[in-house]
Amino acid sequence: MLAAKTLPLSSHHTETTIYPKPSRTFPCTLFPTTRTRKSRVKATSCLKLSAPEFAAKTRVQILSEALPFIQKFRGKTIVVKYGGAAMKSEALQASVIADLVLLSCVGLRIVFVHGGGPEINHWLNRLGIEPNFHNGLRVTNASTMEVVAMVLVGNVNKKLVALINKAGATAVGLSGIDGRLLMARPSPNSEKLGLVGDIASVDPSALRPLIDNYHIPVIASVAADGAGQMYNVNADTAAGELAAALGAEKLILLTDVAGILEDRDNPESLVKEIDIKGVKKMMEEGKIAGGMIPKVNCCVRSLAQGVRTTSIIDGRLEHSLLLEILTDEGAGTMITG
To answer: What are the residue boundaries of the Aspartate/glutamate/uridylate kinase domain, all occurrences included (predicted)?
Structure first.
């Protein structure tokens, strides 16, 4: 949790400052960065503090600096898509769960959407079914679809619900099938992909009572059509469509990369903030390619449907959700309308 992030004793400390309109142009952070302002407090005053006193003062300072961000997002709906490294590592998974519970406790309305590719592959192999992909998408025949539904809805989903409940929040496990939350249609590539579906419509009415009571819906990316046929749907797309239907303040996609890079070969070239026009230009120039394209398209579509901001963040960072929501620095790339 945040209290474990004790700042090192030094002559430079950030002073407690409340910014009326937090944005990524103000140097207000939870953790020290190169953009943190130097304090006007003399070093001698810090050196007089004992270690417990210094730790306590740091915790109070962190909480006070987070206040404007809490005020900004309190009561707002935040849709988080969970996957990648944050799902594979137990330490990162615990970090994500802790972040969700903290954000829920301070008044954010969290909706948690997940996939589970590695776990699906594990169970397919155990059952002697060879995983098959076409252009990065899972080829899903009838037997594979049974495993996908079993793993996502019956295994991954319930484990996440149990972890969130254990951490102190109240989670409710659902899939896109429940309450006709997500209605699916066959993918245009269904001849090659099988039971991979696109989202035809969203009905969030089953979610609203949960969100209004600050419960955390945990949604597996499985949907069905009007005839009851189940489909494997992309979790990023599911999260984006849900965010739009709920009128969410923010959509966050957890990924295995730092975010959008100006130069794909330079991990230091992270684009902190960009608008729709800017990302479209980057795609035209070939700077955004491969697996980042569908994520960016998902964000752009969500923004076009009324979501205020979207972010593609680095799920490999501990407490990346808190860094993205409660600090000025963020943990990846924020895309605006």
So the answer is: 76-314
